[in-house]
Structures are given as structure tokens and as C-alpha cells.
Amino acid sequence: MTRRMISLLLAALMIFSLAACGSSQTQATETPAEGDAEAPAQESGDSGETLQFRVGMECAYAPSNWQEDTASDTNYPIENVPGAYAEGYDVQIAKHIAESLGRELVIVKLAWTGLIEALNQGQIDAIIAGMADTEDRRQSINFSDPYHVTVYGLMTLPDSPYAGGTTINDFSGASILGQKDTMLDTVIDQMEGVNHLPPVDSVPNMISRLDQGTCDAIVINLENAPGYLELNPDYNIIVFEDGDGFDLGFNGSCVGLRKSDDQLLADVNAALATYTQEDFDELWNWAVENQPN
């Protein structure tokens, strides 16, 4: 073998050796890089970020819930209405539940008629809006134990010919108004001989129609009556004796939850169970006293 051939052979061996070393170094540096890429995902899962508890309500149903334009020690920002704050009995219940769950409370203002759809579409986690657990609604969502028990009555103007009614069957010929998509409307069908007017979208709208004289009476939650009387002491509130009033067929105001959220339902009920009836009554009375005039 000539000296030239030996030199060429040695050169080829050196190139092969360097290529092999380069390949080994590349593999050695790629493996830690892939490990580093996975690390942030693991860290983000253990980041300890607080989960949200997104609650939908009208913010227009005092004393259960209403809207304010100034922050206070007790109200809560409304996510989708900048500069506005939610306040009321439902807000305080939502705060208590969120704290018990260890979640961050987020209040979302929604029209009453859109609450159940928003819940089932995942826009919110719960409805806390003075919503009753009616049989029809139970077909779409689950309900917690009640956090407030309600009784229905009627409200008229003081000079109404129906102001002296003592049973729901004393209003034959009267025009009765309720709130759309609520039991405040559907219970009117239990009254004999009345003119069941097309419902309106809110209680304030009902009261406005009563003031205007376009209806003879409106159906109300009697626990809200003190607030209505603050607006106008001359309103006439009709309270029925047991057996003479409306058959509501539900427990009261409950938290609405998706059918699939069984664990959340159990956790919400556990949170509500930490309050005594005295706690609920005290909170309700506070909301009645502080509701807007």
C-alpha cells in the first residue's frame, strides 16, 4: 500500500469518527430539551390556580339580587357589565358557597329566560337567582336543597275593587299579571275566572304596569313585600291563609346546576348545610333592609 493510499484511509477514518461523535452529542442535547418542554405542562397542572365558580343571576330581582354602580364591602363585581356590582341575598349565598368550595366567585348578569341555557352550555357553573325547583325545570337541570322558602300572594292598588280578596277565587273578572317564565306567572292559572295577562320580563315592569292601571293585581313573593311597601306604602298586599292561596309545588329558592355535576351538587348542599335557619333569616332580613328603593 502506498503512502498516499494510507493517508487517504486515515483521513476517511477521522471523518467517520467525527460524524459519529457529532451524532452522539446531538442525541445527548435533544433528550434534556424534550424533558424541559414537558416540565412547564406539569408545573401548570400543579400551579395552584384557584378554580372559578361562575354564577348567573338577573341582578334585577331585589332583595334576592340587584345591580349597583359603586363598590362596597359586601357587593361583588359583575363580569360582563364593567363598573357594575351585584348585591343582594343571592350574592351573599354565592359568596358563601364559593368560599366553601375554595373557588373564585364570578358573577355573570343574564336575562332570566337565558339562565338555564347558559348553564347547560357551560357559560356559568350555577344559577343562584331566586330560582324555584319546579317540576318543569327539574327536567333540564338539578337543584340543590333550598336556601330560601317562599310564599306567594297578590299586590293591588289601595282603591282596587279586589283589594279585599281573601282567597285566590275572589278575583273573577280581574286582570292578573305575572313575570315571564316564572311561577309568578304560571300560578295565575289556578285562579278561577280571571283575565290572565301576557307576562312581562321583570318584577319592576310588573309594578310599573300596576301603577299605570293596566292590570288589577300582580303575583308577588310575599317575602319581598316589605321592599315594595318602601317604594309605595299605599300598595295593598294580600296574604292568603293556608289552603286559600296558591299551590306552588316546589321547595323554594335553590341553586341550579347541570345534570352532570353530581359532585358539585353534593358540595353545594354541604356548603348550604353549614348555615342554620337563623343564619338564612338574618341574611335575608339584611338584604330586605339594604335593597334599593
Keywords:
293 residues, alpha/beta, four-stranded antiparallel sheet, disordered N terminus
Detailed description of the structure:
The protein is α/β, with parallel strands linked by helices and 293 residues long. The protein is built from nine helices and 14 strands. The chain has helices spanning 3-45, 89-101, 115-120, 135-138, 183-186, 203-212, 225-231, 262-272, 277-290; strands at 52-57, 60-61, 65-68, 76-77, 85-87, 104-109, 126-127, 142-143, 152-156, 175-177, 195-196, 217-221, 236-238, 256-257. A five-stranded mixed beta sheet has the order 11-10-12-9-13, with helices on one face. Strands 2-3-5-4 form a four-stranded antiparallel beta sheet. Strand 10, helix 5 (183-186) and strand 11 form a beta-alpha-beta unit. Helix 2 (89-101) packs across helix 8. The radius of gyration is 32 Å and the shape is globular. The model is unreliable at 1-46 (pLDDT under 50).
